[in-house]
Amino acid sequence: MGSQTLQILRQGVWAALSGGWYYDPHQATFVNALHLYLWLFLLGLPFTLYMALPSSMIIVAVYCPVIAAVFIVLKMVNYRLHRALDAGEVVDRNANEFKDQRAKTEQGNCSTRRKDSNGPSDPGGGIEMSEFIREATPPVGCSSRNSYAGLDPSNQIGSGSSRLGTATTIKGDTDTAKTSDDISLSLGQSSSLCKEGSEEQGKFSSTLYETGGCDMSLVNFEPAARRASNICDTDSHVSSSTSVRFYPHDVLSLPQIRLNRLLTIDTDLLEQQDIDLSPDLAATYGPTEDAAQKVKHYYRFWILPQLWIGINFDRLTLLSLFDRNREILENVLAVILAILVAFLGSILLIQGFFRDIWVFQFCLVIASCQYSLLKSVQPDSSSPRHGHNRIIAYSRPVYFCLCCGLIWLLDYGSRNLTTTKFKLYGITFTNPLVLLSARDLVIVFTLCFPIVFFVGLLPQVNTFVMYLCEQLDIHIFGGNATTSLLAALYSFICSIVAVALLYGLCYGALKDSWDGQHIPVLFSVFCGLLVAVSYHLSRQSSDPSVLFSLMQSKIFPKTEEKNPEDPLSEVKDPLPEKLRNSISERLQSDLVVCIVIGVLYFAIHVSTVFTVLQPALKYVLYALVGFVGFVTHYVLPQVRKQLPWHCFSHPLLKTVEYNQYEVQNAATVMWFEKLHVWLLFLEKNIIYPLIVLNELSSSAETIASPKKLDTELGALMITIAGLKLLRSSFSSPTYQYVTVVFTVLFFNIDYEAFSETMLLDLFFMSILFSKLWELLYKLQFVYTYIAPWQITWGSAFHAFAQPFAVPHSAMLFVQAAVSAFFSTPLNPFLGSAIFITSYVRPVKFWERDYNTKRVDHSNTRLASQLDRNPGSDDNNLNSIFYEHLTRSLQHSLCGDLLLGRWGNYSTGDCFILASDYLNALVHLIEIGNGLVTFQLRGLEFRGTYCQQREVEAITEGVEEDEGFCCCEPGHLPHVLSFNAAFGQRWLAWEVIVTKYILEGYSITDNSAASMLQVFDLRKVLTTYYVKGIIYYVTTSSKLEEWLANETMQEGLRLYADRNYVDVDPTFNPNIDEDYDHRLAGISRESFCVIYLNWIEYCSSRRAKPLDVDKDSSLVTLCYGLCVLGRRALGTASHHMSSNLESFLYGLHALFKGDFRISSIRDEWIFADMELLRKVVVPGIRMSIKLHQDHFTSSDEYDDPTVLYEAIVSHEKNLVIAHEGDPAWRSAVLANSPSLLALRHVMDDGTNEYKVIMLNRRYLSFRVIKVNKECVRGLWAGQQQELVFLRNRNPERGSIQNAKQALRNMINSSCDQPIGYPIFVSPLTTSYSDSHEQLKGILGGPISLGNIRNFIVSTWHRLRKGCGAGCNSGGNIEDSDTGGGTSCISNNATIANDPHSTVSQGSVGNAGRGSGAGLHPPVTAHPPTLGTSHSTQSVQSGLVRQSPARASVASQSSYCYSSRHSSLRMSTTGFVPCRRSSTSQISLRNLPSSIQSRLSMVNQTEPSGQSGMACLHHGLPSSSSSSQSIPACKHHTLVGFLGTDGGQSSAADAPPGSTLSPASNAHAKKGEVIYRVQIVDPSQILDGINLSKRKELQWPDEGIRLKAGRNSWKDWTPQEGMEGHVIHRWVPCSRDPGTRSHIDKTVLLVQIDDKYVTVVETGVLELGAEV
Known about the structure:
Strand content: 5-15%
Structural class: alpha+beta
Largest sheet: 9 strands, mixed
Mean pLDDT: 75
Radius of gyration: 42 Å
Shape: globular
Number of helices: 56
Low-confidence stretches: 95-99, 101-293, 1364-1566
Number of strands: 28
């Protein structure tokens, strides 16, 4: 602890004050002396020149060139030395040859030399680096551990000195044993090894390459630096997504480490400074007594092309002297900054800004800024990461230059002010006193640089630029938060360009003449364009990368070349394409909408409505915005919260899912959600633009007047203010109503004299209110965190700091105000009650783009996959759930926010999603108009004790609390108790929703050990394994090719013998069902006895069945594969299948694809490796699923048909893969319905196997909103504590649980290694256009393509709907129905033929489009059936059989004629009849869909055999409102309603009519095909086709397999989709084929090429198919 404190004081406190210089006892005297004298030189030079020379430009002329010369020399030498070390031109010299560099080495006493590449006889004896690397560097895929183990088993280079003729010697002088520059490494042995390698290349290469044991074609490798060092490296230059691992057994000797660092050119590793290896290793490797001679090595440093010197530096010494600038541009920038610091500093000195002691202080600041360019503070107090930070070195000089420039400008401005005065709110900003005060403030701030940088009040340069652009864009131009430095610059530039374009119009309009009742038309044009531009900018994301990608794909489309042999070629992330499509849709929509709203608001403004209706209009608008905003953003969110106003115990407005235990479907859209959406739409798209345009009209002339800002500046302020107000109201209108109402009341009632026109008042008050909201959140966080009754002391320091923080409360409030002004976090110091201000940060908070990279087979070496199974810990495997959750949120988050399901939200808000095992923090970063950019941070499933306590706090309910102070009197119904209400108000978080529905995966895990404990269960698994192999080989498209392969048949010749038996000891009678006890093995005969039937059945299911008998080649192939597969299982189990652990180990090895072919009898498989990949591997994976099914129905799979169909179904619906396989991640992200894997968990001492099953379903989450300032403050505190203060205590007090602030959960969500989340998503943008429910309320995006599609579809619907009843000059029966034949005269009659029937029309194929080739069928019936039903019976039957139809009658989209005809059915057939009150049913009580069918009954087509003709009889109705149904049509109604009466079998159809199999059911029922629209997706039975109970009898087996989610894949039936009914199941039907299994009618609907089974109450009938 003491050494760590001293290290912090030296490298942290002192180095921060001095700019980087401190005394390091671990370095040599030379290093410390050079640092000291260099720092004194930089400090004394300007001070001496100022004291010795007069205050003139002579000081500048002397000081700047000297600094330039010093920095150029130092930077150039440092850069050249690093290049020399990179080149690695090593010169070895013996001790007795040290004085003579050109002398020849004697043959017996010196190490083996290589000729240098510069000359064939170079006496220097240097080694050419490229040649050394070519011969001695291991292959890329192999680690350095394996490589050098291959060179020397003892891992010591010096062990072979006697054979090589030299030795490695470490110079180990006792006085300087700890200095890294005195530790030398001889490469003599390495050179000899290279030479021997060239002579004995076969021996050297084979040892080296075999040790690596990796397949270079299948592995993505780690960076070269990591492979070369294998030491625990904390260098943060490496990309955050790089997987860095340290193996304790990989400790290398010092020569090996140096050799590795010599061999690598990787700049990240060369820049490493965190680990100082010299002190310990120098003591370990002392002088070697066995060395024959001492050999030193030097690096060749070229001075001139033919002149070089040897230097005794090594990399560590050079890095300890000066920081490395890896690029020439960095060196040039450092020199320029040093000269600029000298120039500006000397200018301020000679101008007399500093006097007395402040001159020395200013020189100290100059020296610290210049010294940081040579040796910077590492780590700095504002450094966001561990290790060396290159950017932080430029912070001090850049800020110094900015402050000096600002001092000079303010001083110049105070002395050269113009007569024009700029005054706002009574403050004259052009007053010289104001400028002088600002100048003095900047001077004091500059002199305090050492303290400022020690405390960490200024960030690194790139963070500051991003913060500055973001703050200006948000508060000045109304922009959104940004996601990166590039995004901040892009958004800022776009805002400036928009202001520049609008400024010209505004300036021209203000130059025009104005009067009380006339506003120039040009100003109306400006207002219309202002609204359109603001709308467009508010809808664009700040990140231009997706937009650039879209442009590139459109301008330069790339054709992706897929390698069929690459297993990762099919793995494609769908998210980038989805984002590009969303951007494209939004741009097309903006093209139309911006034009429309621009013209609309131009028309409104030019109509003088803003001048004629004043002042009543503005008060109406203010009242309207106050009312709508109050209801939308306060009342509705409060009554929907879990605890409204922290008083009620449940929401006052509940969703449908609130009381459901387990949610089965997506969330139902409630009426108050629709109300919220429409109010929000009205508020931000109509009310706020009208208010801004009203203020523009009334304030523009005043602002541009000479009394205010004049025309030039006034036009700029009008443009900026209008753009800011409109963009902010479009993007985030949550708190805008408060700002508007307060501003109106404040400047119209309280302080009217201070008003600077309402437009500018709203502009400045919007900035002020954003800071006041931030201050409020900070104070709430502070009060909550330090409340005495709930303080949780995590350490002794917390208890010590708590009472000392009380006297400094006033300072705390000052800090909170300053922090709110600059938008900086207010963080608790070490987690205590003492708060300090951190440096400024953007909304994104974290400077680097850290996101988790899942470890799988795509980014690990093959050797590690086979040996160590990387990524097998639970955290890595479970991170996929958070990744899928991120994709689900990307799809629905923006729409759910707009629906009000997360309550009120604003930029930077943080929410926690809590479920059974998922706990994720969602950080909202950018909030635009219809878009949200967020980041998700997933916590551990099995968290620490502190995390579990906080999870309990956010999931437990407080409704049962009955406490009132110290007693428990209870509480009123539906109201919280006093204690519960009081406690909820003292939390930094609140529960928003307890039932937030989101699509995700539920995980179930079963212990594989318990499933395979008994031998019988293992035998079942083996049997399914064999059957799976047989299935996959018989269903393969390459089966004929395999059977014809001569090489394969030659290898299988042994298996073709009928008497062959395989007696491998791997086979076990306990687990092999076909084991032959007589022959002690698996014989061909015993195999055929068990599996021949299965082979025959599988072969029969092929399109071209093969001949199967005991002697066939197919049986031979199956036999050979099954023996091979079981032998591979036994080999992987170490031939110990009887042992459960060994069996599970082998099973898991085969499951992940690790097949070891150990027998010579199985080498025939190498003729085609597809047999392993496409047959054996799927067989072992499918066997696990079948084994699981065996527990539910053990005897069901004895039937080959059932087993075959089960495998087919599993193949379609289930993804079975290893969790390390990239296909697993791809399947999860593709929303596969079910997944299965065998997981081997090796974590925390556990070693167990689990069968993991994932099922996609709707999960229920609790949404907890956390105070965003609480999150930012705790994050900032953790970063400072771990990076700058170097607190590595895993049980530090700042991460102990604090339920009132969720301290542990928030701190553990920090970026690694500060926190420990198992998943951190990239910044992801969600668009409202992808939310189907929101589109159902507001409609989809308005684009030219959508408009065209809408017009075309509307026209088709009109033609289809009105074609039956809107024909001119004819009756309903005369209309064209699209498929029927033309009808004859109304007076025609039908001859009385008791045997004549009317045939049913053709239904058409199921796959054809709606209405294509369809004919309206007519019910076949006996002619005497018409008089058997009375009016009452038919009417009651209508209501009884189709309750849903009457409810939707008025919604039918079809038009009907008011003229109807009447027919009367007599015993002799159809005859004309008159209307009769006793035989009619009023159509007013019937659904319009029934009327549609009735209108089509009389449209018949001639039957092929009967020769009947269509008859139409029409009599005009006396009243269009009393439409009636004649008694002669009663039989038709019965047929429509699905009753059993009037049925005729398909056999009754005439011989000339043809019916498809799918339409047999229609022929039996005689129904008209009609279209329906899905109105309730919850009524869809998406799994009924896979039910094992077989509730329904399907018309066709092929349709059954396609009528469920197993066949739909990524497609899901949504509300509003339309299709036609092809089959119906009716309750209590006599025909089993049409009998429903429930008390409701079930419909089989075809939507395009998909089949959907849905309850009739969930659809809306659209009428008959035409």
